Amino acid sequence: MSKRKICAVVTARPSYSRIKTALLAIKNHPELELQLVVAGSALLGRYGNAVDFIEKDGFVVDEKVFMVLEGENKTAMAKTTGLGVMELANVFYKLKPDAVITIADRFETIATSIAAAYQNIPLIHIQGGEVTGNIDEKVRHANTKLADIHLVASEEAKERVIKLGEEPDFVINTGCPSIDLAKEIKENPKLTFNPLEKYGGVGANVDWQNKGYIVVMQHPVTTEYEAAKEDVLKTLEAVTELDIPTFWFWPNVDAGADGTSNGIRTFREINKPQNIHFFKNMEPQDFLKLLVNSKCLIGNSSVGIRECSYLGVPVVNIGTRQNRRQRGNNVVDVSYDKEGIKEAILNQIENTKISSSTIYGDGASGQKMADVLSKIPLKFHKTITY
Amino acid sequence: MSKRKICAVVTARPSYSRIKTALLAIKNHPELELQLVVAGSALLGRYGNAVDFIEKDGFVVDEKVFMVLEGENKTAMAKTTGLGVMELANVFYKLKPDAVITIADRFETIATSIAAAYQNIPLIHIQGGEVTGNIDEKVRHANTKLADIHLVASEEAKERVIKLGEEPDFVINTGCPSIDLAKEIKENPKLTFNPLEKYGGVGANVDWQNKGYIVVMQHPVTTEYEAAKEDVLKTLEAVTELDIPTFWFWPNVDAGADGTSNGIRTFREINKPQNIHFFKNMEPQDFLKLLVNSKCLIGNSSVGIRECSYLGVPVVNIGTRQNRRQRGNNVVDVSYDKEGIKEAILNQIENTKISSSTIYGDGASGQKMADVLSKIPLKFHKTITY
Amino acid sequence: MSKRKICAVVTARPSYSRIKTALLAIKNHPELELQLVVAGSALLGRYGNAVDFIEKDGFVVDEKVFMVLEGENKTAMAKTTGLGVMELANVFYKLKPDAVITIADRFETIATSIAAAYQNIPLIHIQGGEVTGNIDEKVRHANTKLADIHLVASEEAKERVIKLGEEPDFVINTGCPSIDLAKEIKENPKLTFNPLEKYGGVGANVDWQNKGYIVVMQHPVTTEYEAAKEDVLKTLEAVTELDIPTFWFWPNVDAGADGTSNGIRTFREINKPQNIHFFKNMEPQDFLKLLVNSKCLIGNSSVGIRECSYLGVPVVNIGTRQNRRQRGNNVVDVSYDKEGIKEAILNQIENTKISSSTIYGDGASGQKMADVLSKIPLKFHKTITY
Amino acid sequence: MSKRKICAVVTARPSYSRIKTALLAIKNHPELELQLVVAGSALLGRYGNAVDFIEKDGFVVDEKVFMVLEGENKTAMAKTTGLGVMELANVFYKLKPDAVITIADRFETIATSIAAAYQNIPLIHIQGGEVTGNIDEKVRHANTKLADIHLVASEEAKERVIKLGEEPDFVINTGCPSIDLAKEIKENPKLTFNPLEKYGGVGANVDWQNKGYIVVMQHPVTTEYEAAKEDVLKTLEAVTELDIPTFWFWPNVDAGADGTSNGIRTFREINKPQNIHFFKNMEPQDFLKLLVNSKCLIGNSSVGIRECSYLGVPVVNIGTRQNRRQRGNNVVDVSYDKEGIKEAILNQIENTKISSSTIYGDGASGQKMADVLSKIPLKFHKTITY
């Protein structure tokens, strides 16, 4: 019997952490064959060269798809997506997969969905059914409506996808593979590397070993593009004033990337903050190890909502980006306000009541996904249930 | 006060009938300004040159977008859509509309949706909430999830869009503008032209004036691509054997176009049917006049479900294409079976119990749409209601 | 030692005949490896499905590139070329050839040239240095200036390429592989098939076996687009009036295709010429066999200039398309004039003075090309010689 | 009589200086109408936002074309060009110019050429007939073969274009509009602004006012991509060791951009050179003023060959990028060698024998161009002269 060919499309660094253990489980499953496509910003040095980590993890990349159009505006984002549809249509025509995986809700993930659905290839959507704001909210639910099989990360998400008119037999709560990685880290939390030495980066040579440290990761919020620069300045000022050793991570790509990045760059040149060190990128496991040993994560990354809930790391979540995503008790929400951010950080780094949560999975999601994909009927035809 | 700029994208001949009276009402509304984009197959002679009818109706076309990629396969359909996203992103960047209209569920309509949504332009989706099968089912509901405002054609559709998690205040049942055209015809049903003289076409010089006639319009069903040719042959054989004067309309473009078209072409060359005359295209009003004076419409066109329900024209609906679309009592469904088709036609042309229905509108939908669009808050940010 | 990977891109039916024996010789050469890309109209049924012939000849197609944009205008031609650059850039990135072959002067061949040259892949141009009119004139010489190695078809062409500033060591007169095919036919000229039975087609059931026949192949002339329909009508009228059994071949794709095709279609429907049978396509060998047994070839195909000079078949060459291409004594030139065409045909079918010519090669060009490609230094850097 | 619509496509910052006075003269000419398209890197902040300078100079930009694909490789360069063809085909379809101007030899300029030539729009090529190495050498001469009218910058260039088979009547030596700008500066050379204050930038606060300064501008050499980083390090080391106040300009975009940029960025972080200040961009006039007051220009910019020959500024030209471009006596050539660069700079800043040259024009080129374009027959059909 021939193996089912499962083709996954990874378009960005953070998406890789969301799927890595599932890719491993598919690759090793006796009834499955993995086809791996790396596309978009995952191929670009400016956004952390995810492809290098992927290959280092032992994966063979079947196709690399260059599709990111430059331009500091939303038009470029739309055109990147259109180009992605064209390129991925070619890729699927050539690879002839039995099913295609599209991951979550980044703007370009709909390109994967269209290229597969329009060629009558069964489409598997990972991490549907969640709620945020902005364009990713639209993209996620549109992906759900284009997909045939839904592997969701929580019970709440499962219910929501079913409410959207999907057949319950094809909506499975596998949890999120990112929790699998968090579990490994939780079981072995010792920080075995010096981040400054291993990853270089720029900025102050902070004394993290003696004083402890906080971590910041703040992405631009697409529909508030113009304000991206201003928003990030609030956090920069708050963190600078607190004067706690800080590891700050560069944002990943989308239309506002340059707004946020410019904010950071300008602030650095002018203020030369003495307590912040900046990284462009870090291997996912190292990043989690850094987090589990940190005093607090600040920003608007979904890692704070998801992995940190399992790890029990305190989080100060800023702004609307993670609105309505289900939270553990590790998260405190604040708005773009310097004093509010400072106060929340000071509270969170003293917070002793945070417990570990399994709302996003128990650490075996990747294997569950592979098992589902080896057995579930593959179809590309559906009608709404109501 | 400046007028709201409403940009509508028409991508195919049948879509134009679904929006024409709304375009007129927008154009004439004191608080609205119409921006008209004609794209895809609506620009191509092979698919009936819809653009010519549009300009003849007095509309100024602001942009023409050539985006149809050749290829007798579904890959081309996907790539056409990707190219559409890129091209329409440019168009909206340039026209800077206050809102964009995407129509119904053809595969390329999602290009309009993405190009608008990704640029934070409020998106209005016309005719969401219906149910069919195939790829258009996926496209329609994905359009709903990308759109901010929903102008639906029936109460059933309204309820379904709300169930999909859209805010009720932004889901309005305006009915379908195609019924507006049907109303005009119903009020003045006399056939004032000779179709053979006015539209040429090819095939037999049928005696429609003395014997009456039936009309056939059968489109390929996308996900049953390979079977498209076989399917149409069943109808060709049934109609040829019945020997009733027949006006047959060429299918519109999608991946299976050449399957269906080849079927028709081959059948013609070999069988030279003496009771069938073939047309490539007809002005929408003339087509409706032809229908209202016909004995029966055969095929799988949505015109049979929609306009004919209002007009009270008997319909033999073949196959799955209109599955689960709400029907009046004018429709009988049959499968791809020569004898079944013949029998259904014979029954329907004697059917005297057909009444007119307003399930898809009462003939004033275009004006209702324009009125809604002049007043409704325009936003591009939404979250699911549950 | 690893073999040199030579990647040839075939974009149209007529191009295949121009390269076929070279492809065979490359495939069979101990120091070469053939990579074959089939693209553009060579993949489309509407233009003769060249890909089917290619695969039937035993070639493995490494990549198929769908890139033809629909539209009855020159904008579509330009956009097809642009899309071709994007697609072929991907293909070469993936195949990593040691050299790329671009063939002659069709509009889309410059896409191959750019995709190779811009990625620093040595570019081999076949059949540069000739002279015609129209856009192909510009394309051919631009290809020459983008290419590193030039395999030309005649001494005159060689001199011209050198005059264009190319290094003489990289300009080799191999002759044209199409003459290799002609040689096979000349050595075994018997018409072993019935064209009507083998190729179907449409139109009159002409009595070619008893009365002999002429062959017509007329392509649109790109820069005289509007006149394409009118031009072809002159030939149709002339041939109809002569009433000699005629095999007429459909034109291949470019912007004017529909002008010429519409002309033919309209003329057929109205005039139903009783002496013309129309073919869409024919295997190259069969086509040459048909030619060598014909009384005369009419139209503007380069086959008349090239293969027919070797075969000694009389040709009536109409219009400007082959202007300034070197001719044997088998060609008579006429303009778009019904009476002139008629007179020329009548003269040519009686012409007994035609000899065979080797100006375009002696029948061993394919092998010569492979031998050159196995030895010549591969470079992608050049500067003009003056 | 209606004005001739002349459409110029500016794709990069340096191209703008090469055409600016011609654009002004066209705009002001009574028989011409300027259509201005800004495309590619000219729209991007990363490459100096040329579009801002263009609009500040009073030009109305008719279309903005986003077409730069990200990717640190040559595949992206090719795909950018393909996308450019598609986009510019649309633009010309819409603007319907009477003639299109393509400028010089950047890789994406061939997109302009194809989009115009394929739509039968007369194509004017500026600055053909020069000789360099690398991909721009191929692009320039391919542009020549696609163009109908040639406005060249020197007598040598004129002869070369004619040798390429172009009709002498359509090859006109107008000189280069960049010399027009140089002339203005030469007539009024006083440095009226403080570059550090007006343009910010990063790096050392050099004492240019008292000690004088040198200027560096080094671009990556495309076909030596891998070496781009290494090459620039030689210059950085040489200049750092000389310890003369230095204004260093960021390279403009092409495939190697990130190689060179990375080299500069890394060197800065590690070595923190105390005599170098880095600028991203400068208004052309200000840049020329900076040059005319400098001790020497170092690098491989064509400004050194062209404007500096007229201005009489000493130049140390590094590497092969300007190979075979005609030089005045202001240029000394060196290879990528630290000691060689140092020595050449020290010699040049003492050189007193440099004279002004008019080989690239006398300062009235823009007006000459406009005059030619108002009178010359516009055609899109040509054949090679031999």
Automatic annotation (TrEMBL), chains A, B, C, D:
InterPro entries linked: UDP-GlcNAc_Epase (IPR020004), UDP_GlcNAc_Epimerase_2_dom (IPR003331), WecB-like (IPR029767)
Domain UDP-N-acetylglucosamine 2-epimerase residues, every copy: 25-373
GO biological process, one term: UDP-N-acetylglucosamine metabolic process
Domain of life from the UniProt record: Bacteria
MF-aspect GO terms: hydrolase activity, hydrolyzing O-glycosyl compounds
Gene3D superfamilies: Glycogen Phosphorylase B
Name of this protein: UDP-N-acetyl-D-glucosamine 2-epimerase, UDP-hydrolysing
Species annotation: Polaribacter butkevichii
